[in-house]
Amino acid sequence: MIGLKTHRWNHIFREDGKALVVAMDHPGVFGMMEGLEKPGETIRKIRAGGADAILTTYGVVTRFAEEIGGMGIVLRVDGGGSSLAKEHGPMQLLYNVYDALRVGADAVGCMGMPGSVYETETLPYLSDLVAQCAEWNVPVMAEMLPGGFENPAEMWTPENIGHACRIGAELGVDFIKTTYSGDVESFRKITEQIYVPIVVLGGSKSKDPRDLLGNIYDAMQAGASGVAVGRNIWRYPEPGKMTAAIAAIIHEDATVDAALEVLK
């Protein structure tokens, strides 16, 4: 990587090459959400718990700079729809690399969604974003989810997840956010063939922390470079403790049982 890009990268990924990203971009689509009523307070808690970076919106970045402090910033740059709409069209780029630079973001993030009915919109704007950011040495994170969110049970197979991730790598993204395939063997096959780092999303709120931490542990053993977890952190009764528990697995190779002790 070129020097300035490496500098930005190191705000997200530690020296061990791993990252704990807390996703806080949901209200850009879903509006008011439990756990994010007061973003500044939540940010303070996850920062104290050891989060490396946050994936968030333009509004949060511009209004909570003090709370964010030294954490890395991945700016969500696409969107265009809301949960209020009965029908949803394709996502669009809402911001560009200049907007990201203006607010001090260390990377930008957007959707890829190969296999979705909107892939002919999302994949071209992803490649345009990669080209923009290459000129200014800004890393790009893409959410490569096969089929998007339309038919996850049907589309999110290990083969399709790997297919989607490889497309992201070929388009030139710097790191990929995707779903865990469900078992170590199949996910290892994915990480071995994708030549950029992969961070695993947290998904919907888990009822049992052991399930969440177990999936994260398995994903790390299979070669993941970290996580991008949202609801399972900021909807947990003590977000700082959950952040610390996940950080222990990612950066200290803690077992699931050891991570559960952090929650006590």
Protein architecture, described:
The protein is an alpha/beta fold. The protein has one domain: Aldolase class I (TIM Barrel), CATH 3.20.20. It is built from 14 helices and ten strands. It has helices at 3-9, 27-30, 39-49, 58-63, 65-68, 97-102, 119-135, 152-155, 158-171, 184-193, 209-221, 231-234, 239-252, 256-262; strands at residues 19-23, 53-56, 72-76, 78-79, 92-93, 107-111, 140-143, 175-178, 198-201, 226-229. It has an eight-stranded parallel β-barrel, surrounded by four helices. Helix 9 (158-171) runs parallel beside helix 10 and helix 11 runs parallel beside helix 13 (239-252). The longest helix has 17 residues, at 119-135. The relative contact order is 0.15.
Q: What tags apply to this protein structure?
A:
single chain; 264 residues; alpha/beta; TIM Barrel; eight-stranded parallel β-barrel; two-stranded antiparallel ribbon; 15% strand
Named at the architecture level, the CATH assignment is Alpha-Beta Barrel
Helix content: 40-55%
Distance between the termini: 41 Å
Work out the radius of gyration. Answer: 17 Å
What are the SSEs and their pairings?
Layout: H1 3-9, E1 19-23, H2 27-30, H3 39-49, E2 53-56, H4 58-63, H5 65-68, E3 72-76, E4 78-79, E5 92-93, H6 97-102, E6 107-111, H7 119-135, E7 140-143, H8 152-155, H9 158-171, E8 175-178, H10 184-193, E9 198-201, H11 209-221, E10 226-229, H12 231-234, H13 239-252, H14 256-262
Parallel strand pairs: 1-2, 1-10, 2-3, 3-6, 6-7, 7-8, 8-9, 9-10
Antiparallel strand pairs: 4-5
